[in-house]
């Protein structure tokens, strides 16, 4: 599975997290069907709610099409449903449609639009914070600033998107003019990610021969 699909697959967890939002009747039942991998049944529940204007259901229908869960993958239909939810300021939909603009998936690649969508979604969406950080790290749609990127990666990790800590470590391991290569700093971020069960960070610490004792038996 490529990196883009891995990041999208992580967003499937948002279907359950969105249960905290005010839900139309049947929405919670549809979320439970997703948890049980009954995607076609979940789709049948989400669709009428989405058509009634329920933004979380619109996002969910879009995600089902985007990931091809229970039906043929279709980026065009996914985009259309994400757009409906985005127009209602639904943060996960803004994040996903931002990823489509960033990668040029279905729509023409546009880093400036992607940046604006991530920026708007980042106030309440952890992965959007991480995506916004990547924009600042690489200069995608905004002036490059590794320093701002590190701060946003930390905020993403603190908000529950643990990959943010790992990405901060990678930034320090690579090095930039405003964030010089610093293996010790990278290791600190990798440890923080590994302490939160992020396996890629643990693997990198082993490769660097810097896995601390308290994580060796974890």
Outline the structure in words.
With 218 residues, the chain is mainly α. It is 67% helix and 0% strand. The protein contains 14 helices and no strands. The chain starts with a helix and ends with a helix.
Number of strands: 0
CATH class descriptor of the largest domain = Mainly Alpha
General shape: globular
Instruction: Give me the CATH superfamily of the largest domain.
Output: Tetratricopeptide repeat domain
The helix content, as a percent range, equals: 55-70%
The helix/strand series, from N terminus to C terminus, equals HHHHHHHHHHHHHH
The number of helical segments is: 14
Strand content: under 5%
* Distance N to C terminus: 26 Å
Largest sheet: none
CATH architecture of the largest domain, by name, is Alpha Horseshoe
Rounded to an integer in angstroms, the radius of gyration calculated over CA atoms is 18 Å
Mean pLDDT: 91
Question: How do the strands and helices of this protein lay out in sequence?
Answer:
Elements: H1 3-10, H2 14-17, H3 27-35, H4 39-51, H5 55-67, H6 75-86, H7 91-103, H8 111-121, H9 126-138, H10 146-158, H11 163-174, H12 183-195, H13 199-207, H14 213-216
Helix pairs in contact: 3-4, 4-5, 5-6, 6-7, 7-8, 8-9, 9-10, 9-11, 10-11, 11-12, 12-13
